[in-house]
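Hi there, hope your week has been kind to you so far. Would you mind checking whether the tokens look sensible for this chain? I owe you a coffee for this, so here goes:
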Amino acid sequence: MNEQTASVSAAGGNSNAGSGTLPLQRIATIDILRALTMILMIFVNDLWSLKNIPEWLGHVGRGVDGMGLADTVFPAFLFIVGLSIPFAIANRRKKGATQGQLLMHVLTRSFALLVMGVFLVNGETFNAAATGMPRYFYNPLCCLAFILIWNSYPATMNKKWIYALKAIAVVILVTLAITYRGGPEDNIHRFGPSWWGILGLIGWAYLASGIIIVLSKGNFWVILGGWVFFCALSMLWHAGIIPHQGFITVIPSAILGGTIAGFTIGGVLTSMIFKYFRDKNNNSGLTISFLAFAGLLVVLFYVTRPYWGLAKLGATPAWLYICSALTILAFIVIYWIADVWGKANAFNIIKPAGTDTLLCYLIPYFAYATMRMLGLHLPEAVLIGAIGLIKSLLFALLCAWITGSLNKVGVRLKL
């Protein structure tokens, strides 16, 4: 879900915004913004367990013109993925990576996210009786396999053991895919991508944005054109100008629909603007530019909402614009606190959620399954109202702490 250290440090370069290089220094803001978004994602994903909480915290229903807090989290994460890409690609370029190697990195990383997304999304319709396996086994086994395959093993570890663990993980995934049965008893289906899941959508968006920045070699104007293209694509898709059926739909809707990829390429564009002003040590210019960009997005939000509404489930242009604007504003605030005023340590409690985000994302699957396997249930009193919300927040923080603890013993995911 993140490019590990490549997202917060990058190769040295000049102050040209069109350059593919970036300054070699830690940018705490990106890690912190990613960590806060992941904490918020775990928090809102846990709201299903609560009662008597404000409706605005959750998702709005399909067909409703509106947005809840939960509807802003996924787009923020997509945007942050885009923020990280230029730093990661620039870092690899400095280490000597060729165009071909960079494209292969983008392709393999996208493939990994798609694989994880499809496996986890099948867990949503898992039929225990038809599969012959308890429901609470499926997701943890998938996540365990992901960790074994994509863990960053110590350099001192015997390579044979690493290959053996990866082979075991592949066998687990293949076995789960073959034996899987999902859906209701009267409509059983086999393993397949009914949709791509959160990780899969991130994978498609990363693929589109990654290819653009690699092929353009970080050219600012090409990236700006890419952002305009996907914004236009989002509006054309919702206007019905782009067919929703036929051969063209071989292109995944996460790309063809414009909105999902638009978030990520918007993050790439924001990262390039950030780099330009950061090189000049011009924090005032940076802030003014970001406020202007956010202001433009708000205008586009108001212009497009009357036509297609505001909806996450509809992936409307208005959702693209307002959530991008909110993420940019959050970036500004965190940048001043963490990087300008030097208060990054204030966020140390959630730091693992920003430096090993994928692992943190997987922790709740183990937690929920463990509760079910052990037959444990929280008291009703801690699942209601404000107390329940505190419980969900503490759960999110616990996931970050577990992630940090696993990192210390050598479990660290890296795609």
Notes: DSSP finds 15 helices and no strands in the chain. The two ends are 8 Å apart (CA to CA). The longest helix spans residues 283-308. Confidence is low (pLDDT under 50) at residues 2-24.
